Structure prediction request, 496 residues.
Amino acid sequence: MVESSRKPPSLPVNCQECPVRGLTLCQPLSGDALDIVQTFKWGDRVLPAGSQLFMPADTCSELFNLLDGWIALYRVLNGGQNQILDFALPGSFLGYQPDLQAPMLHGAECLTDVSVCVFPRRQFISLIQKHPSLAIRLADMNAHRAIIAHDHLTNVGLRTARTRIVHLLRELCSRMGHHQKISSGQTIEIPLSQRHIGDALGLTNVHVSQTLSGLREKGLLRFKKGRLEIFDPDRLFKAADQDELLAV
Amino acid sequence: MVESSRKPPSLPVNCQECPVRGLTLCQPLSGDALDIVQTFKWGDRVLPAGSQLFMPADTCSELFNLLDGWIALYRVLNGGQNQILDFALPGSFLGYQPDLQAPMLHGAECLTDVSVCVFPRRQFISLIQKHPSLAIRLADMNAHRAIIAHDHLTNVGLRTARTRIVHLLRELCSRMGHHQKISSGQTIEIPLSQRHIGDALGLTNVHVSQTLSGLREKGLLRFKKGRLEIFDPDRLFKAADQDELLAV
DNA sequence: CGCGATTTTGATCAATGTCAAAGGTGGTGG
DNA sequence: CCACCACCTTTGACATTGATCAAAATCGCG
Prediction:
């Protein structure tokens, strides 16, 4: 399931012309410091849709900057149930946890073909020690992850299936850069299956399907094969903002 | 609702004898650097149970180290619904978000009498720029917050009311330092009302009450007036670990 | 003693899960 | 080109969880 519109950057990637410079960890670095990071990084890697960048409980010797593609971060319980914690978009910094030696607490599954830039885990602490602006940037990115997790938690804890789905889709649109008004009938590529949506929101795929049908029949949106079409953004998002007022 | 066993530290607090040194942001600092932080901090503050350290949308000129007491971090939706995002225990660093000038995204309500150590927000960035170990510590604490949020999300997204409650209580016990085996009949102070539990887990207070009754009738635990009594820790936690096997 | 907040209980209802089956879709190999 | 297969989506019937509403009981506190 590769998106036609997505063209992977040519590898290896030079930091100076990194396609996600302004979004990543490296964002605060000036020209010289960027060169240092350039020598620090191990290289780049491409993975096909459906593969795993790392799995829960892996001991991982690398850290990653997501250059291109979508990745789902998830946990699994003993019972086999799956919770998607977050969707990582280009610019995300992946694999960092407080204890860098500890096994990973979550997995990372590629939703599309993906390319990443690879850092060695070992020397990472000394790198950010030498570049305090990186450490601060890292603190900010982690704080941002916590905020996104809190959004997500609020969505799952407080809202009904219908508004959960609408809020998730809106957040993804906004994180893709569609902040400005979405025009009626606009279509946006969101490379998720209904199962992914359900796993993110604590719903079954069946119920997601039924709920999406309802939204489609009301003329609000259509979600088909990774393609989101928004018919009535005003009504849709105003209702979602006033929360819970998407009633019948 | 003040806990009898809790005695607030005498104020003002000297950093060298800080009661939560090893847990806070300041943990990596040596003697000299600690003195610098000592001069940096504005002072200490005591708040009564039920008061708000800050509220959602506040523009806040301070940052806080929680010295003593419990605080609930929460969000509210337009509809007035309340989601508790996390419970802050002594050592938590409160108020940091990526944009330090932006209005707070969540509120902080004191669950007990509380004492905090207060930092000025303005010069905070320059402080951590001068002390990279602080920046790294901050990154770690933020990563840890994200992990806790992911635990919480998984709990709410995947589990049934009964296991949600058990897992929450266990996590709180563990964060209070009761890692080691909990003995049968042991009682632990958890200063929450059933409403708080519900607000954290996306359940109504009514359903929390009914579920706790069920657990009590099964001889597993009792939760009464902020006092958790665990009768059968083995059965309780083994079942909770195998997830969902707390059936009837 | 009396008041407000919290907890308990019971009855009913709505939202969501579970199960089962059928239809779509894309990919693969003959 | 077709046949087949795996996975995803849709639909319907039914079961279950948890919400809602209401009222009584309990607790903390002045």
Summary: The CA atoms of residues 89 and 175 of chain A lie 8 Å apart. Residues 1-7 of chain A have pLDDT under 50 and may be disordered.
